[in-house]
């Protein structure tokens, strides 16, 4: 089995279940759960295809992946309530696995089409994070990729590694997959975040700017 197919399967299962669990957290019905699971699994690939000039209709040729996604959603829906309660503990793992698998899959797809490095990196990022962004928006949440620990950066790094033609075998791709998952989990565990600035509106003092809102919160609670 080609590395592209392996990572397509891994990413589809991980993101389909991720979307299903988020939908259940938001109290969606079975149709909403199915839609959110499928959108999470395939949304990033659709966005990638638009950006690199691949017909969106190629989605319908992925019969096996669509069946796997539907099966994954059904399994998630039928899991015992006790297992689902542990979802929050494993949410980051599902996202990390899906992110890494789809970032590599998207990069391989663009590289096989002989796109330049920039296009390969963008394809990796959009395939890795696009489905999650759409999932969060449909669930009425702020997109995880735009507010949480370092996320999309790892997808871009995977794309750059593949775009520079440093990956030649399936085993090398598997090692890259494990490294991206590991660093994403490090981001979660150690709270690695990109620099940010927060604007606070106050009726009395007007607009204030905070470069480090976390330290500000700590001072308030001290």
TrEMBL record:
The chain crosses the membrane at residues 6-23, 30-47, 59-80, 92-111, 117-138, 150-167, 173-192. This is Trimeric intracellular cation channel family protein. Residues 203-215 have a biased composition (Polar residues). Keywords: Cell membrane, Membrane, Transmembrane, Transmembrane helix. It is a multi-pass membrane protein. It comes from the Bacteria. PANTHER family: INNER MEMBRANE PROTEIN, UPF0126 INNER MEMBRANE PROTEIN YADS-RELATED. InterPro entries: Gly_transporter (IPR005115).
